[in-house]
Amino acid sequence: MPIELAEWLETPAGRYVRAWEQRQVDAMVSNAFGYHAIQIGLPHWNLLQANRIPYKAWAHSPSAPFGTRAGRLVCEPEQLPFDTQSIDLIVMPHTLEWCADPHQVLREVERVLMPEGRVVLTGFNPYSLWGLRESLPGLDLRLPVSVPSQVSPARLKDWFRLLSFELDRGRFGCYAPLCSTQAWLHRWRFMEHAGDRWWPAGGAVYAIAAVKRVAGMRLVGPAWRQSRRRRVRRGAVAPVANRINEDTHV
Fold this sequence. Notes:
Keywords: Methyltransferase, Transferase
Strand order of the largest sheet: 3-2-1-4-5-7-6
Domain Methyltransferase type: 73-121
Protein name: Methyltransferase domain-containing protein
Distance between the termini: 26 Å
Helix content: 25-40%
Shape: globular
Radius of gyration: 20 Å
Order of helices and strands: HHEEEEHHEHHEHHEH
Pfam family, one: Methyltransf_11
Number of strands: 7
Structural class: alpha/beta
InterPro entries: Methyltransf_11, SAM-dependent_MTases_sf
Largest sheet: 7 strands, mixed
């Protein structure tokens, strides 16, 4: 992983992005259960703090800043050193943007995740004001990831469909212009509510959660629940589960 990304996250714009992504990821991982949780990339940034899974590890490539956190694993994301179906939760902050083969990384994630396991990803949105600015010729680049290397949510959804992932939820955020000072970012803070309402897909970054589905898998509940289902009157209509409105967010 280019060290420039870790350094950029300490700038005013980077702290703006980190604060938003921390809130979104905390909400997405707080109810994930199991035994093993892995964060791939940026090991100095703890995006597993809101999760209660007992075993946690932070995997990163040899070129990443190591930091001093316990539970570090040095590996390449295209070749994860975990058994098949052994991980319950994987968090990847901007991981697909710096790896050599992002689709292969997702294939590895699908391999090591347990059925019904969860993956949470964050990334830059190339179809945002920030992406537009970085695409204009003659301007100095301010983002640590070039626009061609950014993975759009639409592209990510296509990869989900090719694998065994089902989109669970997603959010766009950081609608303020790409400013280099905290003062100017503060002046544009009203854009957060305006952008989320009028231009929901135009946020500079996104956070997406997906669940690994296995075709034909049937979760078996306790015996008393099965017997209770048998007593349901034939023809009764079961309540419809709440579903995420994908048209509003990601």
